[in-house]
Each structure stands twice: as C-alpha cells, then as structure tokens.
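[step 3/7] fold_predict: job queued, chain A
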Amino acid sequence: MRRIQPIGLMAVGHACVDVYQGAVPALVPFLVAERGLGYVAVSGITLAATLLSSVVQPVFGVLTDRRPLTWLIPVSMTTAGLGIGLIGVGDAYWLAWLAAALSGLGVAAYHPEAARMARAVSGGSHVGMSWFSVGGNVGFALAPALVTPIVAAGGLRWTPVLIVPALFGAVITRLAVRSAALVAASNLQVRGVDDWPSFVRLSAIMVCRSIVFVGLGTFIALYAGQRVGGGTTTGGIALFILFAASAFGTLLGGRFATRFGRIRTLRASYAIAVPAIAALVFVPGPAFFAFLALTAIAMAIPFSLHVTLGQDFLPTRVGTAGGMTLGLAVSIGGIGTPILATLAEHTSLQTALTTLIALPLACALLGYLLREPVSGSAAG
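[step 4/7] structure written:
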C-alpha cells in the first residue's frame, strides 16, 4: 500500500499535465475552422508546444539529477495549463504561438523530476511505472473530451477554462510530494555504470515513435473527417480513440514485459504497428477507427518500457533518462510535423501519413541492437 498510494497520486498528476499535450491537437480543428489556419500554420502551433520543451528538457533532467526539485512538479503543471488557457486569447497568431510555447515549457519542467520520483516509489517495477506512464496517456485521452465540447460551445475565447485541470493536478501532486515517505524515497540513489551507446539507440527508437505519435495526434482529427465525415465531432472521437487506446496499450506493456521481457515486447509491438498504420491510412470506412485503435495500442505498448530501459541504461542519471523518455521523446516529434504538413499541402494528407509507415519498422529493426540491461529494474 505504501507504494500504490504515492504512485497513484503521481499518475493522477501525470494525467493532469499531459492533458495539455493532448489539448494542442484537440484545438487544431478549431484553429482551422475559426481562424482559417492551414496545415503549416497549425503545425507551427504544435511545434511551439514541442520545440521549447525538446530544447530545455535535458537541462531540467541534469538539474534533478543533482538535487531533488519536488516543488517544480506543481509549478510546472500550473505553467502548462496557463499556456493552453491563453492560446485562444486574442486573434494574433504569434500570441497563440507564444502561449503554446509556454505550455511546452511547463511540460518540459515536469517530466524529469516526476519520472525520478516515480521510479523511486515504484521500486523500478515495470507494472508500477506502466501505471505512472498510463497517467500521461489518460491525460492525452481526456484532452479531446475536455477541449472539444468547451471550445465547440464558446469558441476559442473559452480556452481560459482549460486551466482548471492544472490547478486540480497541482493540489493533488502537492499532497503527494509533501509525503515524508515519498520525499525520502526520491532521494535514493541508484548505483551502476551508464551504458550510453544503448541509451542512444533507445533514443533513436523514441524519436521515431514520437514523430508517428505527434504526427497522428496533430492530423488524425482532420484525416478522420476526410475518411469518415462528421467534421470536428468525428475528429474528437478519433483523438479520443487514439489516446484511450494508447493508455490501454501502456498498461499492456508492463504486463507483457514482466512475462516476455522488455526488449522482445518492444520489437514485437513495433512490428505489429507497421501493417496497422498502413491499414489506418488506406482502408476506407468505419474500419478506420478499428485500425486507429490497433495502431495506438501497438505504438503504446513499449512506452513505459522506454522509461525503465532508459533509467536502467543510465542508472546514475535517472532524472535525465526520465526526462528524455517521458518528456523529450514525446515532444520532439513536433519537429517533424511541419515536414508532414508541407508534404500534405503539396500532395495530400493521406500521402503525408503514408510516410509514417516506415518509422515503426525502423523502431523494430533498431530493437535488435538492444539487449536487456545486466542489472535491470524490478520485474514485478
């Protein structure tokens, strides 16, 4: 029970902060409809939310490896919510861009310290870390369910209402970090030898996954409308399926890793994702939603395994590893969205999404260059 309660509170906090990563793609159809933005312009908003996060995330990782920064978790969460809350205030594109960047900064500050503490209180358990990771997936999944009805009812001027989850999450997380047991556990140091070559290979896998996930998150709502019809409502459903199925896949990842091993699970999942994405792009009609769910599950199964593998490859720098695997690895995919957007505007959105098929194949092949760490996390 002493482990379950803190990791549960941290999972709730993780959900509250990752709502704001999911909020950006959920806002895309409204930015297109209300402000007339094109593919490249809306991809710029996504890039704003991810680029700053990608740049500063390693800095926060280094800082948290030097000393505990538990106060940073609720502060960063509030910052992430404030940025999304301001994204609809004013009509100027540059204001929305800066607001998205502010939200990205908050997300960047959150993940390294939160991942370090989650590892400590879960004892490095694959299942425990999968529950913490799934908190982020739940946040992504709830984003369209939260954003779509609010903005559909009041327009982009209602985005300040979206700061509420951040305030709630900050209170919940503050309760967690004030626990003496949690703070003490977060000071535990793991000894070992850092395996940078393996971590670099794992990072390459995470970058490829991130490009797929952020690309789908940015454009799947628009693509669902083209393939199935129904406008922004269909887009919201597609985003919910993407993120909810990802949450389910993350939980499966912890179970599969315990039974089959992390590396085998990682390879198999990415191999399954290749035909799943191909079917998602090319199969017409309502089957679109089934293949979207399969794609999300296959791409999400390795997610929490990236976290524990990264921390086991860098046992003396778990903050840096956690920041990379939970934060940077998710946000860096936004750098690829302008390329996808440019290709979509010059050809079609279907052609642009077709290019994503090659990336899980690359992940599966890179997985064969990885081996389980000699001294890994607890398997339970």
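[step 5/7] annotate
The mean pLDDT is 83.
DSSP finds 16 helices and no strands in the chain.
exit 0
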